[in-house]
Each structure stands twice: as structure tokens, then as C-alpha cells.
Design brief:
The structure is a homodimer.
Chain A lengths: L1 H24 L7 H8 L3 H8 L2 H22 L10 H18 L1 H7 L6 E2 L6 H12 L7 H18 E2 L5 H23 L1
Helix pairs in contact in A: 1-2, 2-3, 4-6, 5-7, 5-8, 5-9, 7-8, 8-9
GO molecular function (chains A, B): DNA-binding transcription factor activity; transcription cis-regulatory region binding
Organism (chains A, B): Microbacterium ulmi
Keywords (chains A, B): DNA-binding
């Protein structure tokens, strides 16, 4: 059992490292389950067990990058970190999350695949959990907080992944990100009435 | 020019018909750009020009199904159709949209692909346009209505595509859809304060 777990952990580390190499060497579009299995020298079965689908590879890569971000949310300075009012934290979280998604856009887009579905249950992603907790602290009750957190997470995460500014220049990217951040602030302020 | 347009329209109709046949005969996972080109007897170039990406095939299929739905929204009985208060129409729209996505779930999921991005501009989908119009009629102004409509469209469309109830049974599907519909109602009621 322990050996199996150690093997699984070693495989996971090796696969993530190989995927990162491939990102630099061959580009994101060439990273497939088959190509990853071949380059890593591990069996296809191992890759499938580890990631499930192609998007699972990128969810794992995104998760690695998310650790730093999570650290800042959980113990960094306010208003993103603890110590500010929940509404201010929710607004700051939206802005920081949009920044994070923009910085990791190619990976985040590849992680986002309609064919992979997530069983609905208690919030599984950091964003859903954090949004839910802040809504709860803001005293938004009565409704279905799990669903509200899920809907707000979609409202926050999906636009920067699905839409691009008309011209892909850096200035337009920044202007679009700013509009999304102001839109998020507007949305959550309206929510609390 | 006219001949070119007529050719394009004929190709489009042929490709959609072939994709529908393939849905029944071989199943959704086997529908790829290559397989569609082969089965339709049209060149790969034609398929790529028409749909852009694999998800484009399913966006086209979903669009066909959306016509009926759009008809009900634009000229059916209230509160989905015209004649009810904008808030009631927005709530009814959410419930009907969730039903539509549930009924077309496999196609809608396949249409939803992080690799395809949409240039951001004036609302392009029927959902965004309709939500934006109702928000405007509800007197929600001051903020950025294009962005708010985009965020609310994500909040409405994405959860039923990305999440599945823990057990895939029909009763759980219905219960999940109902929770999403109540969540949508709760969200828009909070928005108008």
C-alpha cells in the first residue's frame, strides 16, 4: 500500500515535470495523453489513471501554480489575505484570481474542457471554497451557498478563459482584465444589496 | 460571390446532417474534424473553414437546437416570452435555459472547449443578448452591462455543463437542475436588491 502510494507520487512528479518540459520544448498543443506517456517512458495506463483526460494534465499543472496563490490568500497581507472585511476580501480575491488566470492563461484554457466533468458535492476547488466561506462570513444565508459559490466561481473564472479582447495586444488584455475586475466588484456589491 | 455563398450554405447543411448521423451511428466521441471530413466526402479544409475546431461542430449542432428555444423566448407565452416583468422573465429564462442544456447536455458539453476562444465584443450569444436586455429593462445601469451579462451567462451555463450530480440517476439530475434553477432565481433577486 505504502509502496503503491510512493510509486504513484513518484509517477505524478515525473509526469508533471515531463509536461512542463513539453510546454517549453514542443508547445501546449502537442501535449497529449499519448505524447506524455511516450516522453515520460511510463505506460499509457499510468497517465490515464493519473489524469483521466488531457485536460486533467493541465488541471494538475494549474494546481501546482495555484499553491503560491493559495498561500497569499490564506496567509498573505489583507485585503487578499485574512484581516480585511469579507466583502473587501471577495473583491480582492476576484482581482487576484483574474490576474492569476491571465498569467497562466494557456494552461488554464487547456485545463478547461467540457468533456471532463466534476461530480457536484461540497466545493472542491479553492475558489469555490474561498468564495463560499466569504459569502458565509458576509451573512449571506438562507439560499443555497454551495450553488451560489459555484455560480459565482463560473462568473469569475470563465470569462477570462473563454473570451479574448478583439485585438490580442497587451494593452487590450490589461483593459479587458480591468473591466472584468470592476465587473466582479460591481457584481458582489450588488449581491450584498 | 453568390455561388460561393450557396456552396458554403450547402456544405454547412451537409456537414450538420453528417454530424447528426454520426451522433446516432458512432457516438459523440468519434466525431472529430477528420472523421467528419471523411464521412461527408468534403475536404478537411472545408470542415476547418466551417467549424474552426472540433467544438465548433457542436456549437453548430447546438445552434440548430437553439432555434426552437429562441422562438419560445422571443414570441412564446410569458413569463419566458414577452409580456411579463423583466425580473420574472429573467428567472423564467434561467429555468428554461437549464432545461435546454440538460436536454442537449452531451452536445452542449462537447461545444464547450477551453481551446476555442471567442473575441469579446457586443454580446454574441442569444443568452448574453437576452440577459443584457432584461438587465437593462430592470434598470440595472451604471455598471458595465456587457460584462455583467457575460458573467451571469457563465453563472447560468457553466455549472450544468461542468458538474454532474454524485450519482448519474435521473432523479438526481432533476434535483440538481432544480437546485441550479432556484440558485439562479436567488442570484438575480439578490442582484436587484
Amino acid at each position: 500500500m505504502n509502496t503503491e502510494r510512493a510509486d504513484a507520487a513518484r509517477n505524478r512528479i515525473a509526469l508533471i515535470a515531463t509536461a512542463r518540459e513539453m510546454l517549453t520544448d514542443v508547445g501546449i498543443d502537442k501535449i497529449t495523453m499519448d505524447a506524455l506517456a511516450e516522453r515520460s517512458g511510463l505506460g499509457k495506463g499510468t497517465v490515464f489513471r493519473r489524469f483521466g483526460t488531457r485536460s486533467g494534465i493541465f488541471m494538475a499543472l494549474l494546481g501546482e501554480g495555484e499553491r503560491d496563490f493559495q498561500e497569499r490568500v490564506q496567509s498573505g497581507p489583507p485585503p487578499l489575505g485574512p484581516g480585511a472585511e469579507p466583502l473587501d476580501r471577495l473583491i480582492a480575491f476576484g482581482r487576484a484570481r483574474l490576474r492569476f488566470l491571465q498569467e497562466n492563461r494557456d494552461i488554464a484554457r487547456a485545463a478547461f474542457d467540457g468533456r471532463a466533468t466534476v461530480p457536484f458535492g461540497p466545493p472542491t476547488t479553492m475558489t469555490q471554497r474561498h468564495v463560499r466561506m466569504l459569502l458565509h462570513h458576509m451573512g449571506i444565508g438562507g439560499g443555497d451557498l454551495d450553488i451560489l459559490a459555484m455560480q459565482l466561481t463560473a462568473a469569475l473564472d470563465v470569462p477570462p478563459l473563454l473570451y479574448t479582447p478583439p485585438d490580442d495586444g497587451a494593452r487590450n488584455e490589461q483593459a479587458f482584465e480591468d473591466r472584468l475586475a470592476r465587473g466582479w466588484e460591481d457584481l458582489v456589491r450588488r449581491l450584498i444589496g
